[in-house]
What we know:
Mean pLDDT: 84
Largest sheet: 6 strands, mixed
CATH architecture: 2-Layer Sandwich
Strand content: 15-25%
CATH class: Alpha Beta
Helix content: 25-40%
Shape: globular
Order of helices and strands: EHEHEEEHEHHEEEHHHHEEHE
Number of helices: 10
Radius of gyration: 26 Å
Structural class: alpha+beta
Number of strands: 12
Distance between the termini: 45 Å
Low-confidence stretches: 1-61, 383-394
Amino acid sequence: xxxxxxxxxxxxxxxxxxxxxxxxxxxxxxxxxxxxxxxxxxxxxxxxxxxxxxxxxxxxxxxxxxxxxxxxxxxxxxxxxxxxxxxxxxxxxxxxxxxxxxxxxxxxxxxxxxxxxxxxxxxxxxxxxxxxxxxxxxxxxxxxxxxxxxxxxxxxxxxxxxxxxxxxxxxxxxxxxxxxxxxxxxxxxxxxxxxxxxxxxxxxxxxxxxxxxxxxxxxxxxxxxxxxxxxxxxxxxxxxxxxxxxxxxxxxxxxxxxxxxxxxxxxxxxxxxxxxxxxxxxxxxxxxxxxxxxxxxxxxxxxxxxxxxxxxxxxxxxxxxxxxxxxxxxxxxxxxxxxxxxxxxxxxxxxxxxxxxxxxxxxxxxxxxxxxxxxxxxxxxxxxxxxxxxxxxx
Length: 394
């Protein structure tokens, strides 16, 4: 609570006066009141002298209480006013880049799968006609550069909804990681906006619309596992190709890979020639192994960040077969070890890796007509990196 006090010596009884003004959401209100409130915040103490009488009183300035009252009014009037949702990330079990398109993007063929690491997003209906986003980490844009705000704007554009929101993003997924954290946030925001509006749109509508703001976003409207083609927006829903309880560990260095720079260095004549459908068949029949976890973006990403190649090689060497597969997810810079939740010991012992992001995870799906649920045991081992959240579709 923001407060200030005006103190005067007095023989009279102490009085308490409350002065409240919603300065955050009523920008067209009285300029005089706003100026007075500003002066009160800056003034700590004033000594007053009076020949007739001396009083002592305190003026308390409390904008938070006014905001809470507005929120309570919204709660009373709306059938749904607050919603907390889990926003999980994904890995690419394999990622083939098949060609470059005339529009400058690349066609891909990839097995996407949601995993149990994710963010938590709290939505509340706003009494004003403006979205307000807050988060627990610095460096994340809070305006319409953020995919959450882009998604809410998109929903209003498509449906005519006039709902606006207060949103708090509790971030656990590192950005610049190849895990689709921002895309998941956008999909979660579209789902939330639709719930608040009484489901004006179908899930198919949300999936199709979401491709306008990010290539990875449509995937999250699958059941959790999908074979994705095109730019990633063509989503073929799949039954889980591997058991959901297969453990994994995510290891991400502080450095991030620029998606644009990775694609700039991509040479199609040096990519794998393996048929993506055959990779999917092998995984479905035999599970995950090193030979099927092909990522055509690894070579250019390792050019951008040579230390990432050394990290992958060292994990493979140190694990001594402890992982079924070790590979990079998306355009990096997360290295995924499938088959064990434990990183090699050097990650803990070597000073070079003191600041890496570590998390254990499992595969995750969702039930029809419900959003993803956070597993009770899901937790990150270290805080997320602080990089701006933005769309990275290429």
